[in-house]
Amino acid sequence: MRLSLKTPRARLAAVMASSSCGPCKLSFAHFRPLPVTILTVVIYLALFIPLLIIHYVPPSPPPNDSLKSAIGVDLEETWRSLAAITRRYHPYNSHANDDVRSYLVQRIQDIIARNGDNATEVVVDNDVNVLYQTRAISIYFESMNIIVKVPGTGHFEGEVGDVLVNAHYDSVSTAPGATDDGVAVVTVLGLIDYFTQPAHAPRRSVFFLFNNGEEDYLNGAVAFTEHPLAKTCRLFLNLEGAGAGGRATLFRSTDAEVTKFFRRAKYPFGSSLSGDAFKRGFIRSQTDYIIFDGHLDMRGLDLAFWQPRDRYHTQWDSMAFTSRDSLWHMFETSLASVEGMASDGSYTFIPGSGRKHTGVWFDMFGRGFAVFQIKDTFIASMCLLTIAPFFILLTVYFLAKSDKLYLFASSPSSNTPLPAKLELAGFKGFWRPIIAIILAGAAVVGVALLIAKVNPMIMYSSQEAVWVCLMSLWIIVTWVILRAANWWRPTATARTWGIVWLSSIAWLLLAACATAQDRLDVGGLYFTIFYYIATALALFLALLDFFVLPPTAHIYNAILHTSVDLDDDDRRSLIAPSVDERPDDDEPTEHTSLLRDASNLGRGRHIGRRPNSHGSLSIGASSTLPTLEANEDDEPDCAASVHCAQRQYFHEQHWSRGLPRYTWLPQVLLLIPIPVILTAQVALIVGTSIAQTGADGNPVATAYILYAFFTVLLLLPLLPFTHRWTHHVPVFLTAVFTATLLYLLLAFPFSWDNPLKVYFSQSVDLHSGANTVHLIGVRQYLRGVVTENLPSAWTTDVNCTDDTARLGLYRCSWTGLAPNVAPGVSSPRKWAAVNATLIANATDSSSARHVRLHITPRNSRACRLLFDRKVAGVTITDPTGVGKTTPHGDIAEGVDHLRLWSREWERGWIVDAFETENVKKALTGRVECLWSDANNAESEIPALDEVKRFLPRWAVVSKLEDGLVVGEKRWSA
Which residue numbers are catalytic? Predict the structure, then answer.
């Protein structure tokens, strides 16, 4: 349709006539406050809710009958085995440990017999004794491992190696060990049941190792390295527990090739960031994984429970706080991984194959699993860092070449006030996104540090509240800044500039990721790759929008070249309004403004131009200029939706009515889902991992900074859209922020569901019988726990100082209830016999000083031998003369601390110590024997029983070291 309205009266009549066509109808998909608010909020909720469920809730197993018919494994029977194992505390140095060992041997034999497998071999290791050194401590350990060999059916042209599945059956002295490591142990029982069935015979031979002594320096795994059966194993799966339930996560893997087996699991869960944390030393505790990887050069996976840590190594690590769902998740992922390993016929994993690359891996919603080689992610990172900016700059070049680079276009100069409808002002929104990011980020960090200062341990029980508080604050501050800026200086480029800054920040994060991949061999920042891909694509789309606009020179020409196709009346319209133009007899006077009410300039008129089919205006034969319709606050009456679709938003530049109205939708779908999913998974893993480490002495301020960092990363994709939000969500979040902040600052941080962990130890002087009870914990609460709750501390002095063994924690010591760890032996002097004999003295530099010690504890099979000065070497035998020591590795720089572990009770050890220097002074030291059996704590360790009975309900006790009671005795020779 062609419009030609030559006079002001005709144009006014046309506008008035159009009022009969009804109110303007706007599409819900336009970039307007209500749809933007609803869509972005719904997307975030749709992502966060399932991510939280997956993070905390393990999948449920299928009905047991269907499971038995499908794979031949009875999950209920496996669950009952867990009950038998966790009846009592069963550390290596306890009688209950022997009972668990006997039970496991019997269960294994029953499973094999039931499946009619005559080829499977069961080895009860009572032969390997190993002497090795770790952390400058020398350890002598006698193996009590159980090894089950299921022979493979495959025939290979060469050696391909066997598969090892490992779990430790000892617990700590203060926990029944349901998840550390009971669920893993019964999972291995279920795997034995599966692979000993004729229909499921493995292609490679599979060894199932139940090792004893993991809780004390990984002794059982080290002993296995000296067993002949260990020499053929090339692949391994280690099953562990560092929490008390939930999902089993892939802690770490040796390489990308072996990680691909985990991809077979139906419910994979984990991120390579956890492996990087171990690699860089952020996680100081270790598992048997490092023995199989470092000592045997095997390749494999470390699968473990990891949350919550407040029940880990306490009496609440029991069946009451785990579930069949957790058991099923570990069993399902383990079965899928081991099946993949056992059925693999390649030579990839033989030593020297060269096909071993650091892996980058992560799950997607707990159902999919991605595995990459770190070299590939580094190449991808470098390509993205260079190629993506190139294409973006190329697009900018073409925009500039076609005179459509509105982002950097300034308004044309004029001697008179410029009509708003001819304003360009594309650079107007440049600074506001980065200002919002800086101020909102500073506010989030400030509040995080405030919480860390006022109530640092609240994260221990309320990490979800911390997330909600910081996220609410970020959204509020960002919305206020961007809405205020948009009200003060509205601009149509706000969304595009927001995406520009977001993409720039993502580029910097990706550069940091590439540096970590190249210099540190760390791939845990993989989410930045996808973060940048999403932001770069969104920026590319945002730039493409400007290609549909007319060249900026056409808008300049509206002022500079007004003679084109305009009659006199139209020329006058550039300096005077037309809609409210006076009749002809109302002549202008000297008081009439040359540019009267610029906002009304051209309202309802086309200034002599004709609209084309896209709602633009034609200038001359080929030039186009956007229509000059009414502004947003003057709702026009028009039934044609094309006019509605072409109007700009409130007070924004008039040229923006020519922008596409729907491209914000693909930008939302690019910027939010994938970046938020991957970043949120990492944030939840990091947040849950560090939330309760304050009880271990770790600095809490670092944890709060990490929460603030991931808060900003998770919400940055909202930045380009926040200025369009309605006020309803920010107002609601203001109330949420206020409530959560008050709670985080004022609430008590512990509860029965999230108890504060304190550490117990008791030392006894075996000469005098004097005993001291030690309780170690967080300074702010420990003294009150001791002096206000424990009766034995009410009548004696309590000495509290900084603990030298666990940095960051506080130690309170007092004279406690005397232990009776050797029933029937009244005097502590007789709890351990220590005889030191000088066999040979050094008379010259070529002679060797030789001291022999006989150490025999009562009701124990663990002692420590400490020398006041280092000796060159030691040998250990048992008093019967049957045992033989197998050195494992080198004993470097001599020995001054030797730990002794025996598989038999009260048998003791014979230790020969040798010196090479000509030292006339007697060799001296002390023996510390350990008692770790807390199953009869009321009668044998009443101080521990008192702590359990009288601790407040918001606290729980764990062991401090190998022995609950440590008896010390001096010696000299």
Answer: 214
